[in-house]
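Annual report, structural modelling task.

Input specification for the NAP complex:
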Amino acid sequence: MSRKKIAIIGASGYTGGELLRWALMHPEIEVSQITSERFAGQAATKLNPNLRGFTSLSFVPVKALSTDIDAVFICTPHKAAAPYVKQFWETGAKIIDLSADFRIHDKDTYAKYYQEHPAPELLDKSVYGIPELHREEIKGAKLVACAGCLATSVILALAPLVKSKLIATDGIIADAKIGSAAAGASYDISTHHPERSGSVRSYKPHGHRHTAEIEQELSAIAGAPISVGLTPHAIEMVRGIMSTVHARVSPELKDVDVWKAYRSFYAGSPFIRLVKDQGTLYRYPEPKPVVGTNFADIGFEIDPEKKRIILMSAIDNLVKGSGGQALQCFNLMNGFDEKMGLWSPGFHPL
Ligand SMILES: NC(=O)c1ccc[n+]([C@@H]2O[C@H](COP(=O)([O-])OP(=O)(O)OC[C@H]3O[C@@H](n4cnc5c(N)ncnc54)[C@H](OP(=O)(O)O)[C@@H]3O)[C@@H](O)[C@H]2O)c1
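The model returned the following structure:
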């Protein structure tokens, strides 16, 4: 069988570049085209020096894209993605959109957090792209809307406990630390090195856009509305997210109940690692061991005195938070092992 031909729209950005790195190493993928308007005609390795020796591809403008492909990955900003989803909808290509355009099923919620939806008629056609939640639906999907990076880290920490009804469904707070690559490859004053370096900056204490998808997914699992307050901080790190989530629990809750909930929810989910190891320096999840990997490391501690549980969730925003998770979805959509081309540990030390 020949390899699946894929195109990446928006390959000059950080998610597109990371996806390209993984796709070039995937045994069942042939990357046929990568797009950029600004860098059309230039070699991919001009922007991705890590790929020297692995590809001779050059960027093409979107108008030069062939529809003779098996799958298209869209790595553009939201709003820019929807027209490409429409363009490829009838071609038979599987569509994996890394933007926010098709994550939110309700058009009014999308409008509240983003803008008027550019293609509302396709909203109910997409499957939300977290395989650990929607593995079977993703297998049959034509359009997968990959989850946001912050949303992935928060949802993966909470979903099993929501499903097992171990936490109160209101008053959940997610405090996240996030690296600068989350802002994309284009820059402004907020990402300028002297401004960003050494800073710990709260940039959206409430009302962050990923709140919409977090509440959508967790409410669906709970079968009732779930409210989550999300407060991200930009910190001195390039890749990685560390989310610390606080929820109210019964003082009777025991570690074993939480272990059981995680183990049963994530049975058959190879990219989830439960981390709670008192005998080591690395007793809880942290971003460094997952950087450059598709793993989500999740840990917890119960505070019976305060009747709360503290969940810790670490991912690489460019891998499990975008390019890697997109490829994990692609694997499922094509009947491949979901680990294919993604099974790799990170670095230590880093
Ligand atoms: N960065 C993350 O950690 C992360 C994680 C999860 C999801 N995401 C989502 O992934 C998407 C890409 O993010 P990013 O961080 O990779 O952004 P980025 O580094 O700024 O890259 C954006 C890419 O989109 C292209 N582009 C912009 N407007 C376009 C248009 N109208 N038509 C075609 N191409 C267009 C740009 O190409 P040109 O060279 O032509 O300008 C560039 O390749 C966003 O929707 C973002 O929210 C990002």
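Residues 19 and 323 are 4 Å apart (CA to CA).
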